[in-house]
């Protein structure tokens, strides 16, 4: 690599840049006729099949990407992650979310300490607690079983657990395990979210789980205080010990909040917030809802992919292949976005979760050693289950901008419906779209084809589809706890691969800090204006005008508990 140390100066990067011209001469229509190319781009591991053949890439592209991975020291970086090196150097932390799903027999060290026994100590505690709550041995202040759980948390302390909960809600076995129980999430500091989360719940049957790595996040702590006052207003202050528990790395603040440390479930600073769903952050609320045994299967699925990621040669390594191709799309083919399109309603919250994992991890402007990037890192992730997305934003991805797509399909649906007189089952109908969309994007429709169909000339430009739009297709056998775990780990590691190639630190998140500081200044002003009539001062013209307008309506924001 040359003087600046940026990977963009390496021969491998430049070679890939030059290779774009060659790829631009191809069209997926032709690339898809090459059966041996396509066969080489279909990979399988532990029941998951991924077809990369609709990527704008050839075997040569893959070889060049593997060369780039050598320059980026990808293998070394993956190894360092798994052995607990402090690869999150700006926070001086290890990145060991893989240890959260390690079997008891494993040994994974952080600063000389085997963390696997620590992980299992918390898992055992979760099992014991969730069993007691679910069986009605642990009761609320009035002696009633706690059938409903409200998990309060935001960002990584919310999105992962919500994704998994949504994925398991309609799965027959987990749905059975959750019968007569409710799990709600409260994330936004918006009081509307409080109202929605508590709507229809009774204090005496509700258990509140406060989830915050730091236990300082403003939104979570205000929501926690709000719900605590909802509990105590009905049941008295002694009820907190029976109705409120916490998940955090900060036991001191948990105690100060009034929660018995016995009712606190720990995790560690080597678990990033957005990578924490496999810690007590997700495992506690999910075990309360679905039972610990089901959630261990979710951990096992994630661990299966962890092992594959750690050991499989790159040519067959699913997260590595996914990550390299994402870099190819974003940094070389000029596609900054990724659409995550599960053809499965139960995966409705996959895209919002991956959005945080990816964008908070890789939305960086400097390398891990602080050098300004001369290429774009990060990708804009969004998505919606098919077929809903088809009736929303697919117009743009078919005829507007080029947005690489992940199509995710499930072979055996959680729900089976086959109506008499219909030619296919309802799930098959859904999956017809899964298969069709990928080809529609790849092949498009030419003016010649349209003319042959008798389309009038003036409509030909409007009805033409250029095609050549990249996607990948992923098939999972079922959507059960195990496969949900696999899917999660697949995306987590793909995102790590991207960051390792871009040479950034995918595990810090300094970019979220500035807004928090400014909000705190506004909070001080708001209080001074509302309570002492102090004029708005120290803000620019725009913010001053907006704040004055907002504060003109008196008496707002001073209302009572919910
Ligand atoms: O949005 C910033 C962030 O720090 C995320 O990284 C994190 O997931 C979220 O806030 C919540 O943090 P905590 O779990 O400490 O409340």
Structural account:
This protein has about 550 residues and is of the alpha/beta class. The chain has 3 domains: about 25-85 and about 310-415 and about 425-505, Glucose-6-phosphate isomerase like protein, domain 1 (Rossmann fold, 3-Layer(aba) Sandwich); about 100-295, Rossmann fold, CATH 3.40.50; about 515-550. Helix content is about 45%, strand content about 10%. It has 23 helices and 13 strands. It has helices at about 10-25, 30, 35-40, 60-70, 75-80, 115-135, 160-170, 170-175, 190-200, 220-235, 240-245, 250-255, 280-290, 290-310, 320-330, 350-360, 395-400, 425-445, 445-450, 460-465, 480-500, 515-530, 540-550, and strands at about 40-45, 50, 110, 115, 150, 180-185, 205-210, 245-250, 265, 335-345, 380-385, 405-410, 470-475. The strands form 3 sheets. A 6-stranded mixed β-sheet has the order 1-2-13-12-10-11, with helices on both faces. The chain has a 5-stranded parallel β-sheet with strand order 6-5-7-8-9, sandwiched between helices. A two-stranded antiparallel sheet has the order 3-4. α6 runs parallel beside α13 (about 280-290). The mean pLDDT is about 95. The chain binds 6-O-phosphono-beta-D-fructofuranose. The site of 6-O-phosphono-beta-D-fructofuranose (F6P) has 14 residues, from loops. 6-O-phosphono-beta-D-fructofuranose binds near residues 157, 217, 220, 273 and 509. Keywords: Cytoplasm, Gluconeogenesis, Glycolysis, Isomerase. Pathway: Carbohydrate degradation; glycolysis; D-glyceraldehyde 3-phosphate and glycerone phosphate from D-glucose: step 2/4. Homodimer.
């Amino acid at each position: 690599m040359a003087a600046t140390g940026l990977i963009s100066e390496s021969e491998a990067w430049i070679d890939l840049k030059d290779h774009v011209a060659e790829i631009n001469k191809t069209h997926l229509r032709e690339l898809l006729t090459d059966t041996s190319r396509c066969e080489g781009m279909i990979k399988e591991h532990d029941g998951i099949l991924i077809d990369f053949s609709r990527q704008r890439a050839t075997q040569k592209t893959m070889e060049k990407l593997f060369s780039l991975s050598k320059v980026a020291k990808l293998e070394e970086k993956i190894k360092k992650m798994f052995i607990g090196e402090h690869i999150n150097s700006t926070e001086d932390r290890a990145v060991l979310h893989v240890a959260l799903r390690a079997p008891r027999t494993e040994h994974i060290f952080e600063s000389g300490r085997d963390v696997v026994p620590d992980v299992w100590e918390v898992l055992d505690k979760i099992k014991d607690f969730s069993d007691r709550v679910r069986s009605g041995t642990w009761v609320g202040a009035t002696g009633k079983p706690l059938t409903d759980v409200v998990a309060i948390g935001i960002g990584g302390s919310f999105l992962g657990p919500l994704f998994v909960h949504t994925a398991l809600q309609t799965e027959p076995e987990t749905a059975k395990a959750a019968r007569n129980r409710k799990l709600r999430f409260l994330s936004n500091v918006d009081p509307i979210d409080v109202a929605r989360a508590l709507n229809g719940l009774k204090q005496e049957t509700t258990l509140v789980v406060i989830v915050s790595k730091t236990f300082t996040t403003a939104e979570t702590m205000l929501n926690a205080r709000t719900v605590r006052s909802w509990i105590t207003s009905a049941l008295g202050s002694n009820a907190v010990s029976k109705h409120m528990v916490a998940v955090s790395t900060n036991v001191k603040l948990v105690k100060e909040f009034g929660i018995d440390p016995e009712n606190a479930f720990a995790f560690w600073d080597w678990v990033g917030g957005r990578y924490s769903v496999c810690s007590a952050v997700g495992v506690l609320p999910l075990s309360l809802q679905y039972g610990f045994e089901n959630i261990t299967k979710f951990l096992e699925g994630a661990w299966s992919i962890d092992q594959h990621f750690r050991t499989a040669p790159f040519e067959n390594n699913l997260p590595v292949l996914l990550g390299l191709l994402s870099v190819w799309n974003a940094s070389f083919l000029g596609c900054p976005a990724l659409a995550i399109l599960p053809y499965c309603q139960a995966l409705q919250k996959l895209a919002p979760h991956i959005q945080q994992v990816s964008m908070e991890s890789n939305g960086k402007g400097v390398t891990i050693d602080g050098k300004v990037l001369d290429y774009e890192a990060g990708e804009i992730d969004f998505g919606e289950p098919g077929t809903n997305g088809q009736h929303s934003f697919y117009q743009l991805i078919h005829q507007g901008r080029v947005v690489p797509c992940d199509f995710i399909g499930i072979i055996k649906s959680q729900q089976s419906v086959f109506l008499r007189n219909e030619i296919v089952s309802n799930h098959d109908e859904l999956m017809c779209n899964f298969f069709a969309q990928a080809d529609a994007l790849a092949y498009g429709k030419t003016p010649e084809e349209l003319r042959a169909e008798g389309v009038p000339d003036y409509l030909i430009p409007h009805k033409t589809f250029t095609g050549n739009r990249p996607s990948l297709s992923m098939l999972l056998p079922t959507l059960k706890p195990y496969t949900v775990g696999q899917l999660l780990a697949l995306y987590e590691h793909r995102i790590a691969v991207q960051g390792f190639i871009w040479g950034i630190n995918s595990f810090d998140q300094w970019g979220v800090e500035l807004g928090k500081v400014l909000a705190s200044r506004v909070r001080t002003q708001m209080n001074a204006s509302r309570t002492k009539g102090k004029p708005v001062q120290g803000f620019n013209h725009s913010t001053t005008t907006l704040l004055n307008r907002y504060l003109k309506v008196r008496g707002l924001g001073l209302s009572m508990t919910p």
